[in-house]
Amino acid sequence: MRPGETTQPPGVSIVVPVRNAMSTIGPCLDALLGQEYDGPREVHVIDNGSNDDTPRRLQSYGDAIRVSVETTPGASAARNRGILDSSHELIAFLDADCIARPDWLQQLVRAHLAHPEATLVGGRICPRPSDAPIAHWARTILDQEAAVELYDPPYVITANAFARRTDLVRIGLFHPDFLRSQDAEFSFRAGLRHGATFHYAADAVVEHVNIETLGQLWGKALEHGTGAAQLWREYQADLDLSIRGRLADLRPYAGALRASATLLWDTLRGRPRQDADHDRFFDALFLLGKQVGFIWGSLRGGWR
Questions:
Q1: 24 and 140 in one domain?
Q2: DSSP structure class, residue 25
Q3: pTM score
Q4: Do 153 and 204 have their domain in common?
Q5: Taking the CA atoms of the chain, what radius of gyration do you get in angstroms?
Q6: Degrees to nearest 5, angle at CA 20 with 14 and 23
Q7: pLDDT averaged over the chain?
Q8: Are residues 199 and 224 in the same domain?
Q9: What's the pLDDT tens digit per position in 149-191?
Q10: Which helix (H) or strand (E) holds 80?
Q11: What span, in angstroms and rounded, lies between the C-alpha atoms of 91 and 41?
Q12: What is the pLDDT at residue 283?
């Protein structure tokens, strides 16, 4: 390379699975098309059976984005289609309810180049601004830093992730039978069975549209619980897990009961509720919902 010359940034395919996301897909795509990235890139949206106005909204972007249709249900199948049909070796994943900050892709690529040993890179996921207390609390559900750096085994949340296509194919792509917890399943398989390593990119930031109601919190908890049951069945030998032990764990019930009783008592005596009070209650309710979902998923899938 001659003095003064610079290397062009590598090409990246941005894979966005979408289903019935009319309320969020516009801001998501606008942010992706406005990325401050000088390298070649494509925005590849995979429609996974939308029956609202999402297809029409995608069509309005014309050649600015690439659109594919995946008829097999589930984000796993949609992401796999995006991986296999991508134009570039480097793949960035984003969910349709996320808005990437202008330097998001630049920061992901920078983290990848600085840590080429990392098989999977996960960026920071922040909540979109909201007045709902639950939306602020829900940041804990998508805590990428904890998932990558604290949990054992670690995993990368695909709402904001980055990898090489060759690694994704080598590991076996996303499991199409997992309609929930696909990213955790892939990460477990990658780390436990293929020696993958992980890196957290704190400066690669997206904002996620979080849940805002108790009904949404409960539904999300049930989803996480049923996904966890399927995950435990698949990896109990690798991690020495016990489904029966998890089913017998009474802590979620006790925690939910204590938090509910405290919140009710404080309300009856007129004590102003603080953010910490809400968070403790939401924590307990979410753990209870996960336990209920885990029980249901275990019974439906068998206790083996």
A1: yes
A2: H
A3: 0.86
A4: yes
A5: 20
A6: 85
A7: 87
A8: no
A9: 999 899 999 999 999 999 999 999 999 999 888 999 999 999 9
A10: helix 75-84
A11: 10
A12: 84
Q: How far, in Å, CA of 150 to CA of 108, rounded?
A: 20
Looking at residue 185, which CATH number applies to its domain? 3.90.550.10
Please provide the DSSP assignment of 202-222 as one string. EEEEEEE----SHHHHHHHHH
Number of helices (H) and strands (E) in the chain: give both, helices first: 13, 8
Q: Which residues of 246-282 are buried (b: 16+ CB within 10 A; e: fewer)?
A: beeeeebeebbeebeeebeeeeeeeeeeeeebbbbbb
The total of other beta-carbon atoms located within 10 Å of residue 234's CB is 19
The string of pLDDT tens digits covering residues 35-48 is 999 999 999 999 99
What DSSP string describes 163-203?
EEHHHHHHHT---TT-SSSHHHHHHHIIIIIH---EEEEEE
In one letter, which amino acid is 39? G
Distance CA 273, CA 187 (A): 39
DSSP class of residue 119 equals: S
Q: Among 289, 299, 301, which Cα is nearest to 230's? A: 301
- Domain around 175: 12-208
Q: How many angstroms separate the CA atoms of 32 and 53, rounded?
A: 20
pLDDT above 50: residue 5: no
In whole angstroms, how far apart are CA 274 and each of 210, 257, 279, 287, 288? 20, 19, 9, 20, 22
